[in-house]
Amino acid sequence: MPSVDFAAWVTPNLEITLGGHAYSCPPRSVEQMKIVLAFAALSEHNIGVSPNAPDASLIEIVEAQTEDLAALTLGHEIYDRMIADGVDMVSIQRVGYYAMTYWSRGKERADLIAGLMWAPDAKAVEPDAPKARRRKRSGPPSV
Questions:
Q1: Got the DSSP string for 43-105?
Q2: pLDDT band, very low/low/confident/very high, at 111 (cuts 50, 70, 90)
């Protein structure tokens, strides 16, 4: 019986290059994704992307976690390798947050949020804030 190569139809690894090192993070398991999605829903609400408050069951899932978000979203092997490679904790946390968004919402959303949050000149990627209209004065200026 011929075999079918299914590689083109499965979720690819998240490939990360950081500090001269390459990391290949496999997709999260079904059980891990339940936690990742709970974190993503809470995060999106907290940063104002989603106006709806997460369901209480999602909050319970997040509050029950003792594992670092980056260890969960990257996998313990990759997380431990980053620490061993001397990557600073802020960068590891950012990569972990990126991975959370990547696994839950896709690469485009992860790239967008990362750019908004961590671009060297964040103002360059933030949308223009609406400006208040100035009222026309009908009389002479006050002194």
A1: HHHHTTS--SPPPHHHHHHHHT--S-HHHHHH-HHHHHHHHHTT--HHHHHHHHHHHHHHHHH
A2: very high
